[in-house]
Amino acid sequence: MTDKRVQAVALAAGLVLWNGVVDPRLPARWQPVVRAGLGGALLAATGARPGFRPPSVWSGLRVGAAAATAVSAGVAATSTVPMVRTGMRRKMLPERPGRWLALRIPLGTVWPEEAAFRGALGKVGAEAFGPTGGQLLQATAFGLSHIADARAAGQPVIPTVLVTGVAGWVFGRLAQRSASLAASMLAHLAINEAGALAALASQAGPAPLPAPGSQP
């Protein structure tokens, strides 16, 4: 294995270990700041370009806005399904939803994950394994990095890893296609924010009626 491939695999493994071992032990109030700083540091260390300058940023915003619109519509549609609403009502939500929506999701989740996985790891992986291999590496690492989150939330690990890995692949393709992290960030933000708002609305509203013929 060449030095570049070793470095790419090491970075992927480091991100998975960070999310599974170090990050859960950080004080909750400092997590968004530490995560955001780590994402920016990895971008700088790897020389990855986020594509926040014209013309790349305009392409990223167009692609991201289209993806975000589709994602938001999908979340809105699925949130009307009784089974989905029941799951949302059982979800543990933060005590301060405003901070969650305005700070923890955009600064503590979307930016650091896009900077680290689609930005830094995407660049290093592409240099080591080619564009397709690099996308596969970052998507796999992204999925595995959510094992701790799945366990903490009481969710099935394997389905969570698979779904998150597919999402990582889609985010990577959006960033690759537009040459800007703006695209993947908008799509990622839409998924998280729309899901959070749907869960908040579900728990604030009346409980769904039981299906006909079900036991009380």
Number of domains: 1
Largest sheet: none
Quick check: average pLDDT? Answer: 91
Give the number of helices. Answer: 9
Rg from alpha-carbon coordinates: 18 Å
The portion of residues forming beta strands comes to under 5%
Bin the helical content. Answer: over 70%
Shape annotation: globular
The helix/strand series, from N terminus to C terminus, equals: HHHHHHHHH
Question: How many angstroms separate the termini?
Answer: 60 Å
> What's the number of extended β-strand segments?
0
Low-pLDDT sequence parts? none
- Structural class comes to mainly alpha
Notes on the protein architecture:
There is one protein chain. With 216 residues, this protein is an all-alpha fold. The protein has one domain (3-20, 51-204). Helix content is 78%, strand content 0%. The chain is built from 9 helices and no strands. Helix 2 crosses helix 6 (106-144) and helix 3 runs parallel beside helix 9 (181-204). It starts with a helix and ends in a 12-residue tail after the last helix.
Provide tags for this entry.
mainly alpha, 216 residues, 0% strand, globular, 78% helix
Brief overview, please?
With 216 residues, the protein is mainly alpha-helical.
